[in-house]
């Protein structure tokens, strides 16, 4: 008899690996027979090694009852592959997966729909595939159609649906199965803003009601809000697993380091002006790329002017690295502080006072206008990257909650006061 702790494990993955073939071409009969022979002998030849890629490699994890597991990582890390293995869309190359309970997938929405059947017919077909009886589907039918918001089109063939209508109906059917385990993969991007909010509200309600969920998303703020544990994947392997506050911070620190190491190449629209380098300095003038919240930050733009350029107008912005949104702007077009002229090699510096940015990575964007303010010498583009790091003294000022929203999508810090 299993112990109570063992019976709480709804998903157990033991050393699972998944290999995909890179070549899209057809193998010859000789190649196929050779591959079968190698499989029987449990060996790999050089051609097979180079024609395949491991999407997952020796990954093991458990998901317990009422747990919400978030899976994060860069594109190609193996996140969606895990969900496809769990939902049995595909099987592992090696390893085993045991699932205890009825499972529903919000992965490839409407994957079981038949294009020549109507929406109504596909609701019943897909519902049966997901484990409901016809009677259960009939009871939920009106709710499914209302949630999808496609009532007038329910008796139309789904091949005539827009992609949004197709996905919304697929989400609605899968959502109303009410499974023991729900697999979710970036479905918050389905449909328009109103339907996306409806999707989020449903998933939030499902998770907070104590249902078991495996949730894949690039939206780390949503992962932080919904998940009780996070799994960080990269290149098909587990990098870290644990509490959201620890794993998300470590992951974002890794992303920060990668961005800081990435080189930036500026492109000039004017052959007579080139940007040679962009660097950053603190109050003491020493160059660095990591700052603390509230610290002064100087952007140093090293240029080369082939000839004398009169009154070039530089514009710089400190911008959100996740969306490129300018947060703080310094513009000679506005303040009128353009130099009288530049020639040869030189440096333009701009000091931003007491920069009120919370910990994360930021980009500096810029452009340069000619003296007539009509011709552009350099179009708007990314100049460089810097980071605002966690300040240990500041962290202690946060409350005692399990999650500190230092990484939420609100990077500008302002003073505020609660009133009761």
Q: What report would you give on this structure?
A:
- This protein is an alpha/beta fold and 420 residues long.
- The chain has two domains: 4-257, P-loop containing nucleotide triphosphate hydrolases (Rossmann fold); 262-392, Distorted Sandwich (Coagulation Factor XIII, Chain A, domain 1), CATH 2.70.50.
- The protein has twelve helices and 17 strands.
- Strands 5-6-7-3-8-9 form a six-stranded mixed β-sheet, sandwiched between helices. Strands 11-17-16-13-14 form a five-stranded mixed β-sheet. It has a three-stranded antiparallel β-sheet with strand order 2-1-4.
- Strand 16 (360-369) and strand 17 (376-389) form a beta hairpin.
- Helix 5 crosses helix 6.
- The radius of gyration is 27 Å and the shape is elongated.
Quick tags:
28% helix, alpha/beta, 420 residues, 6-stranded mixed beta sheet, Rossmann fold, Coagulation Factor XIII, Chain A, domain 1
Topology:
Elements: H1 4-7, E1 9-21, H2 29-40, H3 46-50, E2 52-64, E3 68-72, H4 79-86, E4 94-99, E5 103-106, H5 119-129, H6 134-148, H7 163-175, E6 181-185, H8 193-208, E7 212-216, H9 220-226, E8 229-234, E9 237-242, H10 244-261, E10 273-281, E11 290-292, E12 297-310, E13 313-320, E14 326-331, H11 332-335, E15 341-352, E16 360-369, E17 376-389, H12 392-395
Parallel strand pairs: 3-7, 3-8, 5-6, 6-7, 11-17
Antiparallel strand pairs: 1-2, 1-4, 8-9, 10-12, 12-15, 13-14, 13-16, 16-17
């Amino acid at each position: 008899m299993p112990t109570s702790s063992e019976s709480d494990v709804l998903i157990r993955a033991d050393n699972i690996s998944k290999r995909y073939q890179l070549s899209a071409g057809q193998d010859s009969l000789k190649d196929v027979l050779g591959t079968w022979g190698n499989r029987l002998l449990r060996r790999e030849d050089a051609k097979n090694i180079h024609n395949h890629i491991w999407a997952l490699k020796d990954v093991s994890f458990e998901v317990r009852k009422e747990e919400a597991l978030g899976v994060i990582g860069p594109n190609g890390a193996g996140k969606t592959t895990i969900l496809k293995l769990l939902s049995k869309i595909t099987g592992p190359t090696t390893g085993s997966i045991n699932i205890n309970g009825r499972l529903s997938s919000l992965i490839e929405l409407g994957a079981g729909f038949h294009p020549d059947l109507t929406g109504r017919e596909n609701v019943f077909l897909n519902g049966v595939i997901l484990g409901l009886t016809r009677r259960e589907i009939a009871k939920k039918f009106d709710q499914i159609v209302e949630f999808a918001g496609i009532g007038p089109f329910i008796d139309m063939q789904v091949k005539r649906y827009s992609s949004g209508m197709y996905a919304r109906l697929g989400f609605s059917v899968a959502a109303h199965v009410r499974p023991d385990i729900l697999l979710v993969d970036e479905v918050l991007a389905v449909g328009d803003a109103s339907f996306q909010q409806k999707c989020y509200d449903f998933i939030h309600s499902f998770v907070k009601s104590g249902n078991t969920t495996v949730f894949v998303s690039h939206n780390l703020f949503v992962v932080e809000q919904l998940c009780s544990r996070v799994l960080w994947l990269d290149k098909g392997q587990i990098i870290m697993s644990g509490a959201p506050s620890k794993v998300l911070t470590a992951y974002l620190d890794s992303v920060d380091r990668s961005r800081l190491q990435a080189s930036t190449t500026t492109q000039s629209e004017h052959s007579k002006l080139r940007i040679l380098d962009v660097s950053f300095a603190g109050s003491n003038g020493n160059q660095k790329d990591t700052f603390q919240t509230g610290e002064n930050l100087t952007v140093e733009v090293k240029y080369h002017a082939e000839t004398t350029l009169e009154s070039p107008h530089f514009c710089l912005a400190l911008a959100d690295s996740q969306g490129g949104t300018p947060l703080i702007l310094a513009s000679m077009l506005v303040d009128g502080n353009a130099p009288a002229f530049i020639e040869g090699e030189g440096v333009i510096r701009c000091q931003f006072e007491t920069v009120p940015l919370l910990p994360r990575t930021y980009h500096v964007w810029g452009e340069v206008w000619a003296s007539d303010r009509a011709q552009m010498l350099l179009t708007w583009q990314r100049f460089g990257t810097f980071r605002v790091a966690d300040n240990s003294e500041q962290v202690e000022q946060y409350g005692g909650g399990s999650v500190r929203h230092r990484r939420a999508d609100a990077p500008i810090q302002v003073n505020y006061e609660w009133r009761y």
